[in-house]
């Protein structure tokens, strides 16, 4: 076959692209390829481990937020499952991915929707999924705002439209509640005792997308450095010599 450019090619399933979107189908195909080549068996399933940053090295035309959003959409379709439970360290930002091939077969048996209908909710009970999803998201946002109030001695409301929108956009970008809590803890530690900086312990600053990634990276770096500090050896002379 003659290609337009003589290099390794990426392939897309037209049937999947018509149902979940071209970019999502391309990412799914790449995950399938990695599962075949570098998959690891965990709990009876084949998983592939990768960070969002390293995904962008494989797919250089996408950035980290784009990768997060697409994986989130694939998970909403329930055709990709991700987890971090296999990571050895809490600071490890890798995620483990597997494909639910039965869900793909179910999806391929559905009718093709037009572009503005390409949404995971179209393939399940829309009203129930939306209701349950909204309730879960409200609870996540309440956890984040409550933690900020507790740590920074503030009284922000999770019901305020601006606060809700800011945290919601961060979670939609693929970040987790734990990421939000880590950023809060880090910035409280840096700013709480600084009279000039205390005022910035607020959702508008912490969860502005342009700020959040930088805050999170700083927090993860410090956490990683702390965990790498050798722990002191404690000698118990009362134990005596073991024979």
Structure description:
The protein is an alpha+beta fold and 243 residues long. It has 2 domains: 103 residues, Orthogonal Bundle (Arc Repressor Mutant, subunit A), CATH 1.10.10; 104 residues, no CATH class. Helix content is 53%, strand content 7%. It contains 10 helices and 4 strands. It has a 4-stranded antiparallel beta sheet. Helix 6 packs across helix 7. The C terminus is likely disordered.
Key features?
disordered C terminus, four-stranded antiparallel β-sheet, 2 domains, alpha+beta, Arc Repressor Mutant, subunit A, 243 residues
What is the ordering of alpha helices and beta strands?
HHEEHHEEHHHHHH
Q: How would you write the strand order of the largest sheet? A: 1-2-4-3
Which parts are unreliable, with pLDDT below 50 for 5 consecutive residues or more? 239-243
Indicate the proportion of strand residues.
5-15%
Helical/strand content category: alpha+beta
Any idea what the radius of gyration is? 22 Å
- Counting copies of identical and different chains, the oligomeric state is single chain
Mean pLDDT: 83
* Form type: elongated
State the helix count: 10
Described by strand count, sense and barrel closure, the largest sheet is: 4 strands, antiparallel
């Amino acid at each position: 076959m003659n290609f337009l450019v003589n290099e390794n090619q990426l392939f897309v399933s037209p049937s999947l692209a018509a149902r979940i979107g071209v970019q999502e189908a391309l990412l799914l195909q790449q995950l399938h390829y990695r599962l075949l080549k570098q998959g690891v068996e965990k709990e009876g399933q084949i998983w592939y481990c990768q960070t969002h940053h390293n995904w962008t090295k494989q797919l250089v035309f996408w950035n980290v937020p784009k990768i997060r959003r697409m994986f989130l959409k694939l998970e909403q379709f329930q055709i990709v499952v991700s987890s971090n439970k296999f990571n050895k360290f809490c600071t490890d930002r890798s995620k483990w991915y597997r494909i639910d091939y039965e869900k793909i077969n179910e999806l391929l048996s559905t009718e093709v929707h037009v572009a503005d209908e390409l949404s995971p909710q179209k393939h399940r009970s829309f009203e129930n999924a939306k209701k349950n999803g909204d309730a879960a998201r409200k609870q996540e946002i309440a956890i984040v705002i409550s933690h900020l109030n507790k740590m920074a001695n503030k009284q922000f409301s999770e019901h305020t439209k601006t606060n809700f929108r800011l945290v919601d956009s961060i979670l939609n970008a693929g970040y987790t509640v734990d990421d939000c809590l880590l950023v809060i803890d880090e910035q409280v530690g840096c700013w709480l005792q600084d009279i000039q900086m205390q005022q910035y312990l607020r959702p508008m600053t912490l969860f502005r997308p342009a700020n959040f990634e930088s805050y999170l990276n700083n927090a993860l770096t410090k956490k990683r450095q702390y965990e790498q500090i050798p722990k002191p050896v404690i000698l118990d002379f009362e134990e005596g010599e073991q024979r």
